[in-house]
Amino acid sequence: MVENPQYLYSFLTIGSFIVPVIVLVLVLFAAQLIATSIAIEKEEKMFETLLSLPISRMSVIGAKLFVSILISSVYMVMYGLMMFGFLFGQVLEALSPSEEIAPAYTSTISIVMSGDVLFYMILNVVGLALFMVSIALLLSLFAEDVRTAQTLIGNTIAPTIILVYTPMFIDVSSLSARIVLSLVPIASTVFLPKLAIVQDHGALAMAALSNIVYGVALFIAIRRIVNSEAIFTLKLARRKRRET
């Protein structure tokens, strides 16, 4: 339990401002990582060559997706926790006397970082990485160069700013609001600190699983596109329109 409710309130207030910024930066990193990788290979004609080899196309896409998700997840978990811990510590230190910081900070963090809550947080971040990498991969399949891929990613990621800051204005006391927001991708990740404070394990699990479900659904769509000739026909159609 937190002895001083002021620290709990400070945690929620500070987290509402810091977590959206961290999530937005990490989402941009995960999306740009896979999009740039695919776009460079398409510029060098390596991607088409790999898809033309006598091996499963999904083996190629799956390997790229797995590596990108792994790198993005590690980056998001490691740097996300480091950035949040550092920024929260600095702000809390500025608001409180130095001799009271250590026990209050440790007590507040221990509530959020309990074993079950930490597991759901990591699972949610992995699901978010899968979802964002799948979106970036889907868009990069139809981009012919790095500039086009980055433009597509930028236009797609920009609206996510609304999703990132939506949880700041949601009342956590409403069960229906927690359930609905837990099903919204990206917003559910930003909502994690509030869900952790109220110890709503059901909403935490729902938020984590929803990201994974959305990511798997996008992966199925990518699989259908890759196994067809849609990638090559769309690119040929663009070239024909340009020539005419």
From TrEMBL:
Domain ABC-2 type transporter transmembrane: 13-221
Listed GO CC annotations: membrane
Subcellular location: Membrane
Topology with respect to the bilayer: Multi-pass membrane protein
InterPro entries listed in its UniProt record: ABC2_TM (IPR013525)
Protein name as annotated: ABC-2 type transporter transmembrane domain-containing protein
Gene Ontology molecular function: ABC-type transporter activity
Phylogenetic classification of the source organism: Archaea, Thermoproteota, Thermoprotei, Desulfurococcales, Desulfurococcaceae
Transmembrane segments: 12-40, 61-88, 117-140, 152-170, 204-226
Highest taxon in the source lineage: Archaea
Keywords: Membrane, Transmembrane, Transmembrane helix
